[in-house]
Amino acid sequence: MPLGVCAGGTGRRVLLIEDDADGRESMRLLLSLLGHRVDVAATGPDGVRKALLARPDVAVIDLSLPGMDGLQVARWLRATLGPSVVLVAYTADDDEDTTRAVAEAGYDAHIIKPAHLSDLEPWLEWSPACAATPEAGRAGRPARPG
Asked: Is 65 exposed, middle or buried (0-12, 13-18, 19+ CB in 10 A)?
């Protein structure tokens, strides 16, 4: 078992916040086929509402969202839900300013579109809560892609 991955095969609660309808549906379908329970939102404010209700294990968030951008969403989720939720920025933006802004907003990972499933999977499996469990051993965070 990779470091930081919880034992057990149950799917995670994933919140996908993506304004592109085709991209949102494709990612929702893929995550569902992998066994995860997926809630979706198309705007920043809707994503925040759904996060409060669903308390996701992982939130995959596009940065360019209507109503509230992905950086604002991440700050809100981190302040409200704390470190228990894994925040993944999922965006086409791959420059130094974006990388810095993503880290400052409290994201755990910055995945560049189009992403390989292998870039996203470790973040879907990892949890700050399981990192401290005996079965996780010397668990740590997955390596950042790139």
From this structure: buried
Q: Can you give the residue ranges of every domain in the chain?
A: 13-136
pTM greater than 0.85: no
Domain made up of 13-136: CATH architecture? 3-Layer(aba) Sandwich (3.40)
**Furthest-apart CA pair in the chain: how many Å?**
42
pLDDT digits 0-9 by tens, 12-67? 999 999 999 999 999 999 999 989 999 999 999 999 999 999 999 999 999 999 99
SS (H, E, C) 42-81: CCHHHHHHHHHHHCCCEEEECCCCCCCCHHHHHHHHHHHH
Locate 77 and state its tokens: 């989720």
- Encoding tokens for residue 135? 């079965």
CA distance 27 to 140: 26
- The number of beta carbons lying within 10 Å of the beta carbon of residue 102 is 24
DSSP class of residue 126 equals B
